[in-house]
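Any chance you'd type out a single protein's sequence alongside its tokenized fold?
>
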Amino acid sequence: MHEITTTPVFYEADGLTMVAHLTRPHGEGPWPAVLIGHDGVGLDDYQRSRADDLARHGYVALAMDFHGGQTFFGRPDAMLARTMPLLADEGRMRAIGRLALDILLATPDVDANRLFALGYGAGGRIVLELTQTGVPFKAVAVVHPALPKPDAHDWCKVNSTIFLCTGSEDPLVTPDQLLAFGHALQDAGLDWRITIYGGAQHAFWARPTNTDGSPADGIMHVQATVPGVGYHPKHTERAWRAVLDLFGEASK
């Protein structure tokens, strides 16, 4: 495992001042690089920790921000008011993702030929949109993503390996929806895979917290959230190992 350095990165996007999280291994590169998109609640300690873990494994990782430094824990209505219009605007999503990607690619010692993406929820949709534009990600992993329409034509010029995962009990991204999207990837000739985690709900990695941000006991959320969200600690670890395996395989 590598020693790492973490840095907040401030930049302007979508009319807001974003506060991304950049982390990198110590030592000379070039290092493979990962762009991370957070879910609709906002860039939180979980996605920052995923970036840090990737850096320990030898990647430069940038966890983008698309809420201007805000998080919406316990405020589902405010989260939906910010996120749903964004998900309806492909141009906005692609512009937000591209600005973050440019910051990552401008980081010293990044190997642009070994580029990856990871997205959760709405951030999964953003990295999928970037992939459709032709960004040469070697592999893209999306966890309970917001999905674009399942149209094979949108993926005909893409060469990335795509990994999709969701919980069997997720009402927002159902296994049937993922399979329909997978069929579009299949028709486009892509290398793709789906993992469905039995018993897991939406955002199954999100550990419950108290109103002060401290961890809460159990798996049920204490603060208000959208329906169908639940924590599943075993599948959280399994999904993370699957992401690391995917990126490791594609880095060779």
